[in-house]
Amino acid sequence: MSGIHTIASGQTLSGIASMYNVSLDELLAINSQIDNANIIFAGQTINVPGSGSSGSGTGTSSASDAETPWFQIAKGELGTDEIPGARHNRRILEYHATTTLHATTDEVPWCSSFVNWCIVNSGIQGTNSAAARSWMKWGSRLSTPTRGCIVVYSSSRGPTSGHVGFFERIEGSHIITLGGNQSDSVNYRSYPASRLLGYRWPSS
Length: 204
Known about the structure:
By secondary structure, the protein is α+β, with helices and mostly antiparallel strands. 19% of the residues lie in helices and 23% in strands. The strands form two sheets. A six-stranded antiparallel sheet has the order 3-8-4-5-6-7. A two-stranded antiparallel ribbon has the order 1-2.
């Protein structure tokens, strides 16, 4: 059984394939209308496998990815990396452009810039801040996490520092998070639940 996926701004076919746990070739096989895998556009609909889950876990609500377009956008960015040396990844500079810091290098911490970019590209106002803890004052607090909600963590660097990303699932005493600037990349990473500051959701 297959379903329908509406392509969001910034997504790639390879990123969408990762979302649905299939290879790019498998995704193209059920989308014969696509002549060039590099030419897709926001708003275009494609066929996808019936299950949109990228893994099972505990501690999530029943909300689907269709209710969290920013999470779909985030997953489309998986694999975005910093470029070592004097060059800088232009995509990461796009993330920075959604904050008032407007950093011009990809070495500047960009976890909050990444979250802002995903939120803004889904049509919602972000925090405009490059500070991870700025998200603790954004939207509404969630007592129980929903897949795709924003998750904020503390940091050993001090009481004003932190990390922010998107909640995927809970595994034991750790929280699996999709985020940017995680080992200089957009990826999934596990964080101790003891570092959790809060879960946030758009107010409207």
